[in-house]
Design brief:
mainly alpha; Amino acid/polyamine transporter I; 2 domains; about 0% strand; globular; cell membrane; APC_superfamily; transmembrane helix; membrane; AA/rel_permease1
Length: about 525
């Protein structure tokens, strides 16, 4: 009735794509597909090494004090509990939806919507503390748009080449500081008693987890890479281990360079890493570090946008929440319509928040919202993991139950101490994030069942609320065969059916309908 009275609303109406739209054709041929290097630096860009070393370490040092290196080391080891979920899911479910697909696979597609808020807010958490921040914001978004509209391969080529220099720079600076610190080098930097008390040390270790947030950004590129079930888990592991190791080394160098007994002033310094670089190295390295902080900030925005766009695309093509036209691809096979929508929404949120709260408070507010939303997405994925692996009858208690439960405990404590001690700004962040989560959940909940079934079918998952047939309950057709790592082969194995068990469905090759017709012939 509403659409009849206001036909223009059809422009915003979600509806499934009539064709089997996928991102696998975005690069024209298999030679143009993304490589392992691209996946690694998509995740590293999501971590933002120079930005995290400049900012996040100071937040952890506020609590851990002179025990910062030990807190960073413990969080690095414990963080593999978070990587565990991404590792196991990405070996089985590979889709542009990323964590959207992970949640749908285990606990159903109704939980898919809330995951979008996290990636949107991770991009909008970038306002800039200057008197001309609006102009800087506009310029920054124009640069992001130019990079992303130039194509994902070019974006990740630049991210990889500059990211390699960034990692080398951080390592060199840490080594130089430690080498020139001389007698200041001491194992006392790994003594938890340097913190005010053990609870503060634990909080510092939890906050150290933020340095590697974003490591899973590669999972949303599953439809644009060959053999994603093999390459994505490896890329995530490489990115996490590389950055985590560098952060431990950097935390040690900063602590002994500053003085482990004087870390109160370190925590309150604006960019202590640059101060230490000037003191122990030279101004050239300090200026280079300063430049790469901006480079790192820029590419975390690019990585966040690439993730957001692919989630919008994955939902829109099956008629979930987003307008039908955001699932359309450009002539080069890129999701430019979803990119445009994501950029506009993110820019409006950044601008309005900055105008209402000011650039400083606006940045802090959206940064907290980003943390809460991304952690919420990981909590949903961790919750989904045991349900998924019980369905495919590959459940392992340690990896699929104990590890995700412990990971959720860490995340919940991390969320709590992100907002503690409380003030109006930090209290507003969970309220705003909660509104996002509830709104997107409700929009997903009212999505027609046939649209949700279509999304599950794309993953080769049986209707989320239908009954299994007798043959399905016996698990006769899992569709999983050794060496099968592409959608067309999976469809042939499954005889084009959506089966009771979840099948490792990697990506469609743009010929899904044609293949189904061929295999249905007697």
């Amino acid at each position: 009735m509403l659409l009849e009275r206001f036909p223009w609303l059809k422009f915003f109406q979600p509806r499934p794509s009539k064709s089997d739209t996928t991102l696998s054709g975005a690069h024209g041929s298999s030679k143009g597909k993304l490589r392992l290097l691209h996946l690694v630096f998509q995740s590293i860009s999501g971590i933002s090494p120079a930005g995290s070393a400049a900012a996040t370490l100071t937040a952890a040092a506020y609590y851990a004090k002179g025990a910062l290196p030990f807190a960073q080391l413990l969080s690095f080891i414990a963080g593999y509990l978070l990587v565990n979920t991404t590792w196991w899911f990405s070996r089985q479910v590979a889709t542009s939806g990323g964590f959207l697909g992970f949640a749908a696979a285990g606990i159903g597609p109704r939980w898919a919507g809330p995951l979008f808020s996290g990636v949107i807010e991770s991009l909008t958490g970038k306002t800039y503390p200057t008197k001309v921040w609006v102009a800087i914001l506009i310029g920054f978004y124009l640069l992001i748009a130019l990079m992303v509209f130039s194509g994902i391969r070019l974006s990740l080529d630049v991210a990889a080449y500059t990211g390699i220099v960034e990692l080398i720079l951080l390592f060199v600076i840490a080594v130089v500081i430690a080498a020139r610190a001389g007698d200041l080098n001491t194992g006392q930097a790994f003594n938890p008693d340097n913190a005010k008390n053990r609870p503060d040390f634990a909080i510092g270790a939890l906050l150290s987890l933020f340095t590697v947030a974003g490591y899973s950004s590669a999972v949303n590129l599953a439809e644009e890479v060959s053999r994603p079930r093999k390459q994505i888990p490896i890329a995530v592991l490489i990115a996490y281990t590389t950055c985590g190791s560098i952060f431990v080394i950097t935390a040690y160098a900063y602590t002994i360079g500053w003085g482990y007994k004087h870390m109160d002033s370190f925590a309150n310094a604006l960019v202590p890493g640059i101060i230490l670089t000037r003191q122990y190295a030279d101004d050239f390295l300090a200026w280079l570090y300063f430049i790469f902080i901006f480079q790192s900030t820029f590419f975390i925005c690019v990585a966040s946008l690439l993730v957001a766009v692919r989630i919008v695309f994955a939902m829109a093509r099956d008629g979930i929440i987003f307008p039908w036209w955001t699932a359309k691809l450009s002539k080069t096979g890129e999701p430019h319509y979803a990119t445009a929508l994501s950029l506009i929404v993110c820019f409006i949120i950044s601008l309005v928040t900055g105008l209402i709260m000011g650039s400083d408070d606006g940045y802090n507010f959206l940064a907290v919202c980003s943390t809460l939303s991304i952690f919420s997405a990981h909590i949903l994925a961790n919750t989904s993991l045991p349900f998924y692996f019980r369905k495919i009858k590959k459940f392992r208690v340690i990896f699929h139950a104990i590890a995700p439960i412990l990971a959720n405990c860490m995340l919940l404590f991390g969320i709590f101490f992100t907002m503690y001690p409380y003030d109006p700004q930090t209290l507003g962040a969970p309220i705003w994030t909660g509104i996002w989560l509830i709104a997107t959940f409700l929009l997903t909940y009212v999505t027609p069942k046939e649209n949700l079934d279509l999304y599950m079918k794309r993953l080769n998952i049986r209707s989320y609320d239908s009954k299994a047939t007798g043959g399905e309950r016996n698990g006769g057709n899992t569709g999983e065969e050794d060496g099968v790592d592409d959608a067309e082969s999976q469809n042939i194995v499954n005889n084009g059916k959506v089966v009771d068990e979840i099948v490792p469905q990697v990506t469609l090759d743009g010929k899904g309908n044609e293949s189904l017709e061929e295999i249905s012939k007697p």
